[in-house]
């Protein structure tokens, strides 16, 4: 490709290391003025790292419940292992934006309140109201519209 340049982080990669063009992925700059190429195996590895789901276990829900003090969930997959009393609570760490997804598993002994971020809501509910996840169950949410979480 004309105007081909290497991505700076990969300066040590040279075409001599690969024998066929199908080992390369070509990426064009946003303004279309330059083409970059990167080895497919490195590109795929980077995508797998960036897109890899995150998870956390051993989460302890906020005792006495409520949205303000609810434990913030920072991962895509979350296992809440301690729910000392009904209505102990958790919430996402960020407001819902299109494409956001999260799974919450209640591995505790009591019902867990899962609040949306402040100002958000679950589809069909008023703003800032929780949904309850019964002990031993899990839910998934996805955001199709900013500020609104849909159960999946």
Summarize the structure.
The protein has 152 residues and is mainly beta. It contains one helix and 13 strands, in the order βββαββββββββββ. The strands form three sheets. Strands 4-6-8-12-13-10 form a six-stranded mixed β-sheet, with no helix packed on it. It has a four-stranded mixed β-sheet with strand order 5-7-9-11, with no helix packed on it. A three-stranded mixed β-sheet has the order 1-3-2.
Overview of the structural elements:
This protein is mostly beta strands and 152 residues long. It has two domains: 4-51, no CATH class; 55-151, Jelly Rolls, CATH 2.60.120. 8% of the residues lie in helices and 39% in strands. It is built from one helix and 13 strands. The strands form three sheets. A six-stranded mixed beta sheet has the order 4-6-8-12-13-10, with no helix packed on it. A four-stranded mixed beta sheet has the order 5-7-9-11, with no helix packed on it. A hairpin with a 2-residue loop joins strand 12 and strand 13. The chain is elongated and about 60 Å long. Residues 1-21 have low confidence and may be disordered.
Inertia-based shape: elongated
Strand and helix order = EEEHEEEEEEEEEE
Number of domains: 2
Q: What is the distance, rounded to the nearest whole angstrom, between the alpha carbons of the first and last residues?
A: 43 Å
């Amino acid at each position: 490709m004309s105007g081909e340049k290497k991505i700076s982080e990969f300066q040590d990669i040279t075409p001599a290391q690969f024998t066929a063009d199908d080992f390369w992925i070509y990426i064009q700059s946003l303004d279309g003025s330059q083409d970059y190429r990167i080895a497919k195996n490195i590109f795929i590895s980077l995508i797998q790292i960036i897109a890899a789901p995150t998870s956390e276990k051993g989460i302890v829900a906020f005792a006495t419940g409520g949205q303000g003090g609810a434990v913030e969930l920072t991962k895509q997959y979350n296992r809440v292992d301690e729910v000392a009393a009904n209505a102990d609570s958790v919430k996402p760490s960020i407001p819902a934006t299109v494409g956001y997804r999260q799974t919450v598993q209640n591995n505790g002994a009591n019902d867990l309140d899962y609040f949306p971020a402040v100002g958000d809501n679950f589809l069909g509910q008023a703003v800032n109201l929780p949904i309850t996840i019964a002990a031993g169950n899990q839910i998934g949410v996805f955001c199709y519209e900013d500020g609104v979480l849909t159960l999946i």
